[in-house]
Amino acid sequence: MNTSPCEMSPMERAAAIAKGERVDRMPCNPNIANGTARILGCKISEFNTDAKTLAASQVASYRRFGYDSVRIFTDLFTWCEGMGAKVNFPEDDTADLLEPAISDIKDVGKLRPVDPYKDGRLPVHVDAMKYLIDEIGQEVGCGGGVVGPFTNAFFLIGVDKMLKMIRKDPEGVHALCRVSLETSKNWAQAVIDCGLTPTISEPMSSCTVVSPKVFREFSKPYLAELCQFMIDRGKPVTMHICGQTNKIWTDLADMGIAAMSIDNVASITECKQLIGDRCKVLGNVDPGSVMYSGTPELIRLKVLEGLAEGYDSPKGYMAMSGCSLPVETSLDNIQAFMDTVTEVGYPVVPEKIHAMIEDARAKVAAQQ
Amino acid sequence: MATQEELLARMTECVVEMEDEEVVEVAKEYVEAGYDPLVGMLEGLVPGMQKASDLYDAEEYYIPELLICSDAMYNGLDVLRPYVKKDAMGQRGRVVIGVVQGDTHDIGKNLVKIMLETAGYEMYDLGRDVPLQDFIDKAKEVDADVIAMSTLMSTAMPGMSEVVKMLEEAGIRDRVKVVVGGGPLSWDFAYKIGADGYSVTASDAVRLVNNLMDGKPVGPNVQ
């Protein structure tokens, strides 16, 4: 089954690569996020109430570009909302946190882990996952996003309060993370029960936000337990953390993750050298200054540079943007990303990439 | 009795070392000894925050540390501020400041606000994710001398250009200086959108705004 515009479906491609056969291109994912609404032609707010539309936008975007993974995930606040936080829903933009679930850490005992089939928008996401896997589950890997326990804890008490509690009230932070972990597990189980694979987003664990020491004390124990929960159920763990993450890569690889998705401020080469023998490396074209503001020529150059760095990573590499694309990223720019990966082909011939990089550099220079 | 230098050094240390309670005691001791509160801000508290930013750049401090340093500085400022002579506070000019729409990263903006405040400017803080029209409305309302905008997100940068255009349309562009800052920005960008200046750091922002107010030249090569 192949309803993608590419020569092979992602599943055919992956199977052929595993057998060592020649395929049309390496797997890749421009990471479109809520921009799928622009492709289907709906408002982003429809994703909050209409499971069919949420799934249909993913299907439409996949059928337009043919990239190698799709996912039900709209924003970071679906889980804290299910635990009592208030969320702002713009008519046609990504949701944002309005008010945390509790205002005083004294109330931490009142927080309950989510029920995926009852709380907030989670039932909509459950139904969307079912529609998605019914529609294209035979040809492309389908994921369900889940926010990590540490990040979710920030949204339960409020970001500023949590940042200060890290120094002033470590026990309170642990209490928030514990109940968050139960939420993450409940959701991961629901994703697995729908037949999809959970993918973890844990942005607040970034070295751009907290120190590796704080990560190890407050985030790692819970995140490791969530990873193990998935591994015990036979699911590979894909981890995305925004910003710089180099100082915690070894910790993450120790959790048994199958893929590490890195942001544009992190280095593919460094990641490959440090943990490439233990997990796949995904990344890391700059979603803002390259994918959103750049020209197709600049995108070609950056995708090529990433491929040149990552193609020989021992456990594999996947060209991806460093983080979710801005909603209004032009479809031409996304197509340029896809076309570049196809132009390189597979197996990768390094000399060919280097020649293409020379060509791309000249074209970008000519534009300036 | 402690000398002024000793107390300044202790205030700096309190801010850097995240002593957000002890700083209050030191600041009290400082003003009760009759030392100049403005010097206390500029040479005691602010250098502490500068050192904290340096530690952040060096990846020794992270956001939680920076936040408590900034709490410590604010706590110190709260003690010193009532003792500053009226003619020194807010007399340099009025500044409207905010993070432009589409972005909620406001730590940099807050640092610039503190720096300009302590340098004698009257600050009107619009917060973060600020609708573009609010900059114009507030500038008119308070007859601002300067509009300062920041963003960490390249996706929010076009908003800054819009504000400059909106000032022109409102016919008040020549009455107000526009300065911009934030991770993805540059002097090139500032020139491109028709802003008056750009600064890399919060302390540079003070120098930049001072120079603009005094009619001195500014630019990438001006110290």
What is the topological layout?
The complex is a heterodimer of chains A (368) and B (223).
Chain A: H1 10-18, E1 28-29, H2 36-40, H3 51-65, E2 69-72, H4 78-82, E3 86-88, E4 96-99, H5 122-136, E5 141-147, H6 149-157, H7 159-168, H8 170-193, E6 197-201, H9 212-232, E7 238-240, H10 249-254, E8 259-261, H11 268-275, E9 280-285, H12 287-292, H13 296-310, E10 317-321, H14 331-344, H15 350-367
Parallel strand pairs in A: 1-10, 2-5, 5-6, 6-7, 7-8, 8-9, 9-10
Antiparallel strand pairs in A: 3-4
Chain B: H1 4-16, H2 22-32, H3 37-57, H4 63-80, E1 93-99, H5 107-118, E2 121-125, H6 132-142, E3 146-150, H7 157-169, E4 177-181, H8 187-193, E5 197-199, H9 202-213
Parallel strand pairs in B: 1-2, 1-3, 3-4, 4-5
Helix pairs in contact in B: 1-2, 1-3, 1-4, 2-4, 3-4, 3-5, 5-9, 6-7
How would you sum up this structure, described in words?
The complex is a heterodimer of chains A (368) and B (223). Chain A has 368 residues and is of the alpha/beta class. Chain A has a single domain, classed as TIM Barrel, CATH 3.20.20. Chain A is 49% helix and 11% strand. In chain A, the strands form 2 sheets. Chain A has an 8-stranded parallel sheet with strand order 1-10-9-8-7-6-5-2. In chain A, strands 3-4 form a two-stranded antiparallel ribbon. By secondary structure, chain B is of the alpha/beta class. Chain B folds into 2 domains: 4-83, Methyltransferase, Methionine Synthase (B12-binding Domains), Chain A, domain 1; 93-213, Rossmann fold (3-Layer(aba) Sandwich). In chain B, helix 3 packs antiparallel against helix 4, helix 3 (37-57) runs antiparallel to helix 5 and helix 5 crosses helix 9 (202-213). The A-B interface holds A 96, 160, 163-164, 166-168, 207-211, 214, 288-289, 292-293, 326, 328 and B 18, 59, 61-65, 67-68, 71, 104, 153-155, 157, 184.
